[in-house]
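Record format v2
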Amino acid sequence: MSPFFDRLAGSVLRKQTPLVVGLDPRWKSLPESFHSASDSLEQRARAYGEFCVGVLDVVAPLVPAVKPQVAFFEQLGWRGMQVLDEVVAHAKSLGVSVILDAKRGDIGSTAEGYADGWLGDRSPWRGDALTVSPYLGDDSLQPFVRAARDRSAGLFVLVKTSNPGGKFLQDLVANDATIYHRVGDLVERLASESAGESGYGVAGAVVGATYPEQLAELRQRMPHTWFLVPGYGSQGGTAANVAGAFDDRGLGAVVNSSRAIIFAHARDEFADMDWQQAVEAATRRAIEDLRSAC
Amino acid sequence: MSPFFDRLAGSVLRKQTPLVVGLDPRWKSLPESFHSASDSLEQRARAYGEFCVGVLDVVAPLVPAVKPQVAFFEQLGWRGMQVLDEVVAHAKSLGVSVILDAKRGDIGSTAEGYADGWLGDRSPWRGDALTVSPYLGDDSLQPFVRAARDRSAGLFVLVKTSNPGGKFLQDLVANDATIYHRVGDLVERLASESAGESGYGVAGAVVGATYPEQLAELRQRMPHTWFLVPGYGSQGGTAANVAGAFDDRGLGAVVNSSRAIIFAHARDEFADMDWQQAVEAATRRAIEDLRSAC
């Protein structure tokens, strides 16, 4: 199998969009048809599975990747994790890449444990890529990088996150560079050492749409690093805000939208549609909107 | 129920030790009786469950808490997460506290998702405490703090980790303070705002045994923050190294040991015992060793 970011570049070009649909199931936001008398963990897990499969059936032909948010499955205990397994299997059967948003991080053999659980076709959850957190330092990323290389998978390391509090630590300046620049430089080194045909290496970066200037600056500073850009849509990021994330070919970034797409049935503009029609309309609208950016 | 760190202080005094036993099951390190012809995920998960239950039966009367390392259960996919559920249930039935080492971190409702999954008796995995990562900033910790307060649970925020690469980011100096001091100051503020009868608040900190000077300095700087100290034993930390972690009452810290206890059957000195006798002997030896420290 070719390296993940080469595959991702191919499907971004084929589908002509960098849009990633975030699978963030929330019990209270599901379309009415999923509600039932019982809200047991078992019942909720089953509903999450059916809902995500329904979303996938609509969006898989339209976008290069989906991004399940692992926290919402973990919220339901092991039953949620079992359903996540089925959701990933369905996504893979439809040929769409799966970025597992789990923000894992640990050291040595413990990090290997996480990588074994999440990365690659032979892992239990079979992710094409995984988000990871860098607080434990450079040696904590190595097992993830090795696993990603061995298994043609990808990583997205948290660099500059979309939330306001991200600045608490990430924007501190040490030796004339912010923490996010330092983490970014480390990620870029890991990426440049492993660059595939697309020019991008196994280590990608999470950089929020809510900081457009930093996004454009990091694009220049990290030429071998593919970006996963959260914060577009519901968190206030616009297509103009994410324009700086792309290289000259329109590659180098995918842009995530979750709630605005999967819960489109709750948006006034789609009120006359059934929930899957609303998902499709919202996906097509986001694709159109992003077209102006890349 | 009383706040977690008050309960923990009580059991440290009752059992007269700050030792926490880490439940880090690894397939190749299990005693021979757990090996079988098949090494399917299902078979391995079953073995992890039986092994951890066997460890718990020995150590629960001796120590105040156990610390399952979630990565090793996640390594086996949802089957591992299901077994973790059974392991926690067994620990609770034996009256020993459960610190879930998952190093989770995310923002807003996503962080709430994790907290809902892990913290408190009504959560699926029913942890008494959870380790969390601070890279996403102060606002990312709030949902965990709220959930911990509401559910009489505790947190341990990564501050100064035991691995060599921890210094890559944690030791950088910004505005005359290291990153770990800044994170430590934030955690201490959250702890002081929620201090219970023991004097310790809902936010604890992970501080490695491999940095004894910093450990002692942080103890002074963070008087309301209970420490979880990894790195004792297999990572080279000694009883003398952890001495600075405790307050005048011998409280304020628990010290984790994983491999040296749960895989004690592989240590020459315990070669003539069955594996559970070896676990008991190694636990008693670590308790004795730590007695000199606090």
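Residues 41-59 of chain A form the longest helix (19 residues).
Chain A touches chain B through 61 residues (CB under 8 Å).
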